Amino acid sequence: MSLTELLPITDLNDCCAPITREPMKADGAEKLARSLKALADPARLRLLSIVASHEDAEACVCDLTEPLGLSQPTVSHHLKVLVSAGYLNREKRGTWAYYSLAPHALETVSGLLGDL
Amino acid sequence: MSLTELLPITDLNDCCAPITREPMKADGAEKLARSLKALADPARLRLLSIVASHEDAEACVCDLTEPLGLSQPTVSHHLKVLVSAGYLNREKRGTWAYYSLAPHALETVSGLLGDL
């Protein structure tokens, strides 16, 4: 997906109620759909789960290319989508970039779907 | 999205652990991504929320066209996607088709994302 379509997940915090609670308005549905599109890709789901499973939920980009069997530019693109959508944070330290799970991002989406 | 890409959400039940618990395997990530794609559309999110908000979480197709301001064939397409993906059940009674929320479908996806 194009990076210009993305919006940070923090925009979801006040967008809408859980989808089963009341009919969604157009604006809230648009925002939630964008956040879901950023997640709805097998490579991005795997990257998120690899980062989350690492110690301290943080992984070096050098650990993220090999497990997926994808080229480094492809992995970089998916990581950019996840950062732009607010699921991952990125920090450059020395030679490498490190990616960590953004606190509450997945829980926000999950809560809007599930109202658990 | 094409209906041939869809798989019923019941296929997710044994596919995988919550994505933050362990690195996802390719097969599970592919299945979860397909289910998320079926959700990642503003019109489909609104249709789901309208059905869920109706009494008994069931709505006549005759109640679903007008609120979205979309043509009847477009709404029908989105409803087909939601039924094929397992989020809605469809029952024909007399003249009209009735759509109801499939039990546990949204909770399954929500649980895989959020591990709440």
From TrEMBL, chains A, B:
InterPro entries: ArsR-like_HTH, ArsR_HTH, HTH_ArsR_DNA-bd_dom, HTH_MetalResp_TranReg, WH-like_DNA-bd_sf, WH_DNA-bd_sf. Keywords: DNA-binding, Transcription, Transcription regulation. Residues 24-116 form the HTH arsR-type domain. Coiled coil: none annotated. PROSITE patterns: HTH_ARSR_1, HTH_ARSR_2. The keyword Magnesium does not apply. One of its GO terms (molecular function) is DNA binding. This is Transcriptional regulator. It comes from Mycetocola manganoxydans.
